[in-house]
Design a protein that fits this description.
mainly alpha; globular
């Protein structure tokens, strides 16, 4: 039976509009990431391999490093004005940045200005994406009841992966067919405009509206209610829960792209094609985990992912030291992305543990800081860790990440057990 079959028509409409918007926005966001091996050569000056690695790291990192500022901005809008305006504004920002990049002259035409403008566009896309997935997940968490909530909210991650897959497919088509790369960005711009128009049909969530009414009508003698306070341990657990995915994503799509280019002599179109296969594996993994969440509690699924990710992390340096075939590298990329650590499919479990009127700000800011920190560490730290320690430098990042992820799972398990215990006490009292 479909996970949407028991939803009302209004709930189905909200799910559809949010999925469409997320799909379209992540198509735009990931388009440059997967064409970076081609575009970095057009927008940045030609340099030696080490400097080129730093430039590639900058281009990747610029998408994430300023996300905390976007989280504060869109978090404030989401918690004070509404969930709907946030997801509409972010889609418009994505469309504008795509239009600029589609028309941007190259480094050969205008010099270093091209590098600065494309970096600014990537930052804008990163900021807009900050209010995107988390905003959609919060919206659905507040309008979809249990038990459908877990798989329905997880579908947001499926459609953002689907957008990423289509972005790589378009990038692959453009490079293989010898088309102008700008065509891909014009497609992305048109797609983002469609997403913006679609989302204007959304209604504000009743949970948010009711919470604002309760706050307005409540008489507060001093400060905030207990319900308005964010639990520090919950905040830390949510942060650690999102530190894992950036390293697995970076390895699968950025680090391995450099290996394919420098070690195996792959061309840009060959690298993009291999990344397309890896992205499809990531999409399949999200579908599998989402369907499993209909029958298995999401935190148990995360425990399974942690086991697989830990084993792969321990084996990774030994594999990289011996790999001599791009097909073998593809297999490792696929396993890494399948077990990549992250909140999927348990996002709805985490979000309900934040106060309603601080939910958007708390979740987006913690998510943004986690991605910003890990992207800086991955993009620049790995260059030097691998240089000094060889491929064993990965351990410096992966082992603490897995330990933190384990602690986060245990924290949320305690919160869920406490809820069950409280419900049992309330039932007995009644």
């Amino acid at each position: 039976m479909s996970i949407f079959s028991s939803l009302s028509s209004q709930q189905k409409e909200a799910v559809g509009l949010l999925q469409i918007g997320t799909f379209l926005e992540y198509f735009d966001l990931m388009l440059y990431v997967h064409m970076a091996v081609l575009l970095n050569e057009l927008f940045f000056p030609k340099t030696d391999p080490h400097t080129a690695s730093l430039i590639a790291a900058l281009a990747f990192c610029s998408t994430y490093v300023l996300r905390p500022f976007g989280a504060l901005l869109f978090g404030w809008i989401g918690d004070n004005i509404g969930r709907k305006p946030t997801v509409v504004i972010t889609t418009i920002m994505m469309a504008l940045s795509c239009i600029i990049m589609a028309n941007l002259p190259t480094y050969a035409q205008i010099g270093i200005s091209a590098a600065w403008i494309v970096t600014f566009c990537r930052i804008t896309q990163g900021l807009s994406a900050m209010g995107e997935v988390i905003g959609a997940e919060i919206y659905l968490t507040e309008v979809i009841p249990l038990p459908q909530r877990y798989p329905v909210v997880s579908c947001i991650r499926i459609v953002d992966d689907l957008g990423s897959v289509l972005a790589i497919a378009v990038a692959s088509l453009v490079t293989i067919a010898g088309m102008n790369w700008r065509v891909a960005f014009w497609i992305g711009a048109c797609i983002a405009v469609v997403g913006s128009l679609a989302r204007t049909r959304l209604r504000e969530t009743a949970e948010f509206v009711n919470a604002k009414i309760r706050r307005k009508n409540a008489t507060k003698k001093a400060g905030l209610d207990e319900q308005d306070k964010v639990n520090p341990k919950t905040a830390m657990a949510y942060f650690l829960m999102h530190c894992g995915y950036p390293i697995f994503f970076f390895f699968s799509f950025v680090f391995c792209s450099s290996m394919l280019k420098n070690k195996f002599g792959y061309t840009a179109d060959q690298i993009i094609h291999q990344n397309l296969i890896v992205a499809v594996v990531g999409l399949v993994s999200d579908v599998v985990y989402t369907m499993l969440s209909k029958f298995i509690f999401p935190l148990k699924i995360l425990t399974f992912k942690l086991f697989g990710a830990s084993v792969l992390s321990l084996l990774l340096p030994f594999f990289l030291n011996t790999v001599d075939n791009p097909i073998h590298l593809l297999i490792m990329q696929s396993f890494i992305i399948f077990f990549a650590l992250g909140g999927m499919p348990a996002s709805a479990v985490f979000l309900v543990n934040f106060p309603i009127l601080k939910r958007f700000t708390s979740a987006t800011l913690l998510y943004a800081v986690a991605y910003a920190c890990m992207s800086i560490i991955n993009s620049f730290g790995l260059i030097y860790l691998v240089e000094f320690f060889g491929n064993y430098g990965f351990y410096v990042i992966t082992i603490p990440t897995c330990i933190g992820f384990y602690w986060a799972i245990k924290h949320f398990e305690k919160l869920e057990k406490a809820k069950v215990s409280n419900m049992t006490v309330s039932t007995l009292a009644a």
